[in-house]
Amino acid sequence: MYSPALLEEHASLLTDVQYIAVSDHPIESTTHRIIYRPGIDTLKNENLESRAERLLGRIQELGSVGATAEAGVRRLALTSEDRDGRNRVVSWMKQSGLEVRIDQIGNIFGIRAGKSDLAPVMTGSHIDTVYNGGILDGNLGVLAGLEIVDVLNDFEVETNRPFVVAVFTNEEGARFQPDMMGSLVYAGGYDLDTALQATSSSGENLGEELKRIGYAGKMKCGAIIPCAFLELHIEQGPVLEAQGITVGAVESLQGISWTEVTITGQANHAGTTPMSMRKDAGACAGKLVAFVHQLAIDIGDPQVATVGVIELKPNIINVVPGSARITIDLRNPDNSILTDAENNLEIFLQELGEKHDVIIATTRLVRFDPVQFDDRLVALVEKNAERLGLSYRRMTSGAGHDAQMMSRICPSAMIFTPSINGISHNPAEATDDADLIAGANVLLQTVFDLLDDQPG
Ligand SMILES: [Zn+2]
Fold this sequence. Notes:
Elements: H1 4-9, E1 19-21, E2 34-36, H2 52-63, H3 80-95, E3 99-102, E4 108-112, E5 121-126, H4 139-154, E6 163-168, H5 181-186, H6 192-196, H7 206-212, E7 228-234, H8 239-243, E8 247-253, E9 255-264, E10 268-269, H9 281-299, E11 304-313, E12 319-320, E13 323-332, H10 335-356, E14 359-368, E15 371-372, H11 375-387, E16 392-397, H12 402-406, E17 412-417, H13 433-451
Parallel strand pairs: 5-6, 5-7, 7-17, 8-16
Antiparallel strand pairs: 1-2, 3-4, 4-6, 8-15, 8-17, 9-13, 9-14, 10-12, 11-13
This protein binds zinc ion (ZN).
């Protein structure tokens, strides 16, 4: 829509503007009835500082859907709260004139057509949350994508390539496993039918839940292959804040290895069973925790290792534990070091089982190789941070993200904004407004660069 105020406000754009006379009101002066279609290069100096309320307001509004008493948010994947959040985002997409398509795993794509049928530029993230999460994780990336659409619309810019804002299903994996499911299935890394059969801990079926909330779409997973995928996300760690840096140009993502260990010994009387005659699953669990912690310290940074779950049975004060279930999370950006860590764990478990006369079984729950993002995209992110006068650094992501899965099918990269105190997956998750806007500005300009890109 032509707006005189807008045209005045951005009078500097007029030098590059093409004027098209509109004939439906021939009596009105043609000087006031024009549609101008500037090229995207006229938005080189555009940023979101003066229009920050729209993005910040939507972050708050989406954060109010599924709000918890602790001022956090709970929109577990494919619950009614997730549906309400999806509906909110889809209505914004439609308001902004996007064509909305839903694929078979429930991923949402809002498409803004380009002048050509070239492969689109895609950005996005997820809006599902953990049990009591913050309002930024995932949501920032989706809503910043919508904001880019609205800037393009405000200036009536036609882009060379189409632009797509994606919302991926079940990134968190808090209700259905595996995590990052929507993007993983989309990228062909996980079977669609297996994913649809996933069952929650309370017995619900993923495919049925998709239908119930109205997001069992028809589009084939992987139907749109972008020329580039960019994801803006909060860091969820302390590095940027500690170093006083505003923008993370994420060049890699560490490999993740999850193992579940089950130790079966013999439950017995705590008073009458001599130490030498025990099959103590609890003592083994304790040794395993200590081993895993020391393993990461011995390997050194950036190796990390975590035991997040220990369940003993029967879990009674005067009974030697008969069984134990322990989960181990190992991460490293170097695949060979991560593999060594896994092998060392295996050797330790074998020795532990023999020494304590217990049976130890392991299940590999998750194994994702480290990801190297596309160097050209990372350099473009750096270039735009530099041009916008923002401090930046290259970094590795400690957490898994949808961009990791998209990197299987197209050049991908991520932009991080600082997390206050490094806190995430917690109602206290926060980022300064200025940092959110700075990150969104880098995304905006990087997307603009790519939208005008010619195939080469
Ligand atoms: Zn996330």
